[in-house]
């Protein structure tokens, strides 16, 4: 007779959609199947009867442990397996019989891993090891929900997995499960006899249950309670480890990095083999933008996960990290990419995708992580070396039908003359610009005009600038351009038609059709008298000789209508299209536009240097100077800025556009100025504030021990003229000090007689209201901005002064765009610490400093 080795004990209710799968999987392994039905109203009992005659009915009494204990009354075999209707076992579970037969007699309990599926695709999973097998008669259950077995004797772990489908819920089942479970847990927590560990167990179960609630605050409230309970007992039970990870992730998502890191480290300290908190630490260091430590913990996480996969029976709590292997490996891949480790990058990019396919992780998200790191790589040789890996990524996206914007990285390769499989790239094309890039890669050629005018010249050329642009960059047969100009001419007013006729005349001239050229030029003058000055010299030349090499009128007209403008035409396109315009056109225009829309300083410089006809771009040297600023090559920045002003006089007054560059900017030199003084700043100040034609537009700030000074250093008269012009022209001056600040400062001095420097800055009515007399003999000093023009501090404060207030501006020295640096009326800047040192040298102490944004009000008095 076959030995009765293994019974299965189940409790069920309305499980007709699950029960057959469970029973079918276990029927050939168990000697006996015992089922307790707690009130099914569906076909569950009928299905059970197909597999066993040991079906018993007990009414549901709201207590899982009671139902479980009822099911344990009926088994007759040596071992009892606790099994649920929403579970199944696989073929390898048959080996459990041999395992049980060879167990020592003093072992009564066996832990088995349960793998829970979390989605309908059966890719997202979590694993926990729980007691499932007991010698008959050695166990009973307690607690009304999440019932816990109470057993005696030795415990063993076994690697026989049970597969659980119960977490794949419909919305209705989710709500029902939540309400039922929450109410039972809350009822159980009312039990005053719970031990601290039991209380923590049920708080964690409640915390996990609240995760599916619409009341998000409930979960966090339970989380804080649970954490306090763990801290009270001074040790971390198994389920507490799971909680530390989950609550740590909540803290991480709220960017409370200190709490998250502390919780993860506590879990690791308690059980170093537990993988999940290592994954949490990857997230912490991701928020800190620390790839080095992300890599460190990703490696550790995958090591621990591998161990947990081999020994799931050692973990008595749920492990969720199995579903994050791809994410961790994406970090490792990014690390190797950043460090230009080609071999390991290629290995791990494939590993990441393999992991994601088994875990169900979002491949699109993982590839995005890697592509973002790829964008930071500027080493052309390394980019060339990983071309095949990049194409592998593209193939993965195609194979998995993933729609993702790969063009930033694709453009990076193409821009560095690294050819990518065009047929592969073509599968990602979504925009017209991308189509032109592909066309350019396949055929060569220039597609600038086709892109700008959307392949429809007649309907999309609507302005004079567009006509001039078309004429300049058209690279097809002249006859075709003639036909096109003739076609679009009728869409414009007479004056613009006149310009078009002049351009038609230029084409006929180059084609040696002198009769048609002369006729077109005359028609142009008839329609637009303003351009006759450009056309008449050409007609005069044609009277003396019929020569196609005579210069036409285009350049004169172009200069007349677009003089000093940065571009003939500003394109309405996406930023990335402008940035890589050079990929569809080899024109100087495309290179220039790509350069000024680019953030990569070396690429910007490289593109500008490729431009052959620099004179065609009035802002060429200005843009070049801005690059030298970024590089902090201030000597080159200064000389290039000046050249920019010389080539285009309008650049001397970008703010107002009133004062052209003429070189007349009175400045002074002093003995304190040394050639060795370090330049710390260089700009064209008219980007923000006009120099009013008297202060040099190109300024540097040089640093000495006691202050910063402007170079060129404007004279007193130049500053006076600038102020005078500014007061006439500028209504809202950013350095205007409010009457309230002046009033409060004067009142704080509490003197009837005050020596007021820069007295024109102080309204007369305030002096009358405060009954203050402005006197050089006073012991009190009031100064507004004097320290911004006087380099010798001792000249600011006469020897008889006993106290005073200095009002001044202090920039953020780390912000090169701080407007204080641009003020044309300032030639000295001091930091507050430098001012305090100067005051100390003169025998004063700083009594108080007030601030209003970048304004400082410093009260000083004699020691």
From TrEMBL:
GO terms for molecular function: transferase activity. It comes from the Bacteria. Keywords: TPR repeat, Transferase. The keyword Disulfide bond does not apply. The keyword Transferase applies. TPR repeats lie at residues 498-531. SUPFAM superfamilies: Nucleotide-diphospho-sugar transferases, TPR-like. InterPro entries: Glyco_trans_2-like, Nucleotide-diphossugar_trans, TPR-like_helical_dom_sf, TPR_rpt. Gene3D superfamilies: Spore Coat Polysaccharide Biosynthesis Protein SpsA, Chain A, Tetratricopeptide repeat domain. Residues 7-110 form the Glycosyltransferase 2-like domain. This is Glycosyl transferase, group 2 family protein.
